[in-house]
Amino acid sequence: MSTKIAQMAGLKLIEGYSSSSDDDDDDVSRPETVDKKINLNSLPLPKFAPVGTGVEHYETIVDNPEEHDGRVRSFKHERGNWATLVYADYKPSEALQSWMTSVNTIIPAGTLILNDSHLSFSRTLILKYHWIESFVESLRDLTRSTPKFNLQITNVKIYCNEGRTRTFLGLECQCLDQTVTHYMTSLNKLLSEYQLPPFYEDASYHISFLWLLGDKEEDLKKLIPTLNESLFDILSKHFENSYINIEHIHCKVGNKLYKWPLR
Ligand code: AMP
If you measure from the C-alpha of residue 240 to the centroid of ligand 1, how many angstroms do you get, rounded to a whole number? Predict the structure, then answer.
């Protein structure tokens, strides 16, 4: 296989999230499934190499939005830059999944996000290769010393990515105690040590379940009261679905995935 073809295959492989590992330790697993519907602006990177063995060299790939559902990268490909995200996995219940599907019938232009639902605890960060090992170690230690925490789904909210090239509908969640706040304070401090931006100052924890290309905030705004009404109806019938118990934190770095248990 030519280098270029191998790189493109790598791009397809690392698009999207996966959390195939269920182990409780500082597991590492590579995404095995590709769901083109939900994607970070991932970088086409070679397989992770242990620090010391070096990273394979590769050509810069010219971004072609047609190759990833029209989504536009929010940062340039650069050798040695690894797309990184800290998040928790979330699996919507059947009741919520069918509600999300019903929202999709109201907004057919949207793409549903069901298999890779998650709650982000960082922006999509760009980590330098030589910082990965110590960053991951510090994040692991922070995670392992943080108690498990709960969130409650409160309402539907519209989110746009930073370049406003994509719009998301998400289930906004409220923190039920101070654990998330403490975790985020420590995480933001850690990020600053690596010259990485903190999470949003007005952080709004959420589970994105549908996305559209472009800035569709104005179009979607008028639907929010109806969507909230139907969400509250579902949650009143399935009250337990309102609560989300976070027991693990994931960190995706390039095509490598880490999963650690909270204390
Ligand atoms: P996510 O589902 O975590 O990928 O988030 C969807 C989008 O929401 C991301 O592109 C974020 O940049 C965006 N977003 C906008 N405002 C906020 C906020 N206040 N808190 C969290 N995410 C936000």
Answer: 25
The structure's pTM equals 0.78
Beta carbons of 17 and 115 less than 8 angstroms apart: no
The model's confidence at residue 79, banded by pLDDT at 50, 70 and 90, is confident
Q: Which atom of ligand 1 is nearest to the CA of 208?
A: 2
The CA 173 to ligand 1 mean position distance, Å, reads 12
